[in-house]
Write a structure and sequence with these properties.
This protein has 273 residues and is of the alpha/beta class. The protein is built from six helices and ten strands. It has an eight-stranded mixed beta sheet, with helices on both faces. A two-stranded antiparallel sheet has the order 7-8. It starts with 5 loop residues before the first strand and ends with a helix.
Length: 273
């Protein structure tokens, strides 16, 4: 891609939701929409969960992994305030069954706040769609890395990880248009030959997660021009119960994503579109 020039680097604020966009000269994007841990001061009095309780279901350190030579979209607000990877009607956790059985709010969240959060959801997705469209207008294609992490020790910190049911990397590809299958195959083959934490990588598709609302929407609307690839890293890079990171492992995940960019570059270099 040659030299990368930063076009814009700005923190945005919807009514309650903080997010960060960094634009560079690239057709590729890295998103970390569940990294955030912030609760707006106006909403904080209503939150029933302590910070450490929220942290277990957030995706800490995925913003670090998203610091790639790509455009970046990072959400600073907690998913417990507004979950941008769910459709609008489920984006505010109003019931325990929407939030791993957790009672998110001390009392019912006032309707006017729910309305404002839903408006944030609409406005942010309008911004995302505009950014992707601009990328397509400039390059004719895009790829979006949707970076997440997941818990594999649900029953306690001493639980043995069931590796059969919990791949190191779950690739969510269920909503990608079939035309991008060759790209996904090349990406998976490349990653499977790399090392992570000084060992071979277990990467499989759609075992734990198939992709969320971001993947569904962008793949459906812009699937002719590119795809959203959802990376779910098993939380081997941190203690999922205390939140303490293993920083060399965090860096290893980021480096793996960095290395994989060559697959994207080569694919579109050879593409005859």
């Amino acid at each position: 891609m040659g030299l990368l020039f930063i076009k814009v680097e700005k923190i945005f604020m919807a009514k309650f939701t903080k997010y960060f966009i960094k634009r560079i000269d690239s057709p590729f994007w890295a998103f970390a929409i569940h990294d955030g841990q912030q609760i707006d001061p106006f909403i904080d009095p209503y939150i029933n969960l302590k910070e450490d309780e929220r942290l277990r279901e957030e995706d800490p350190f995925t913003a670090v992994m998203a610091e790639l030579p790509m455009n970046q979209f990072i959400v600073g607000s907690s998913r417990f305030q507004l979950d941008l990877n769910r459709k609008l009607e489920d984006s505010v956790y109003l019931r325990p069954d929407q939030a791993w059985g957790l009672e998110v709010w001390k009392d019912s969240l006032p309707e006017n706040i729910v309305t404002e959060l839903h408006l944030d959801h609409k406005n942010i997705y309008q911004e995302i769609e505009e950014q992707i469209q601009e990328t397509i207008d400039q390059y004719g294609y895009f790829v979006l890395y949707d970076i997440h992490s997941y818990n594999a020790k649900r029953n306690g910190p001493q639980e043995e990880v069931d590796s059969e049911s919990n791949p190191q990397i779950n690739l969510g590809t269920a909503y990608i248009e079939p035309k991008w299958r060759p790209l996904i195959d090349q990406l998976t083959a490349f990653i499977s030959k790399e090392n992570l934490y000084e060992g071979p990588i277990d990467i499989r598709e759609n075992i734990k997660f198939k992709g969320g609302y971001l993947s569904q929407l962008i793949n459906k609307k812009f699937g002719e021009y590119g795809c959203v690839v959802s990376f779910e890293f098993r939380k081997d890079f941190m203690d999922e119960w205390t939140g303490a990171p293993d920083l060399p492992r965090v860096v290893s995940c980021k480096q793996l994503l960095m290395n994989s960019i060559q697959v994207l570059n080569q694919y579109f270099k050879n593409d005859s579109r």
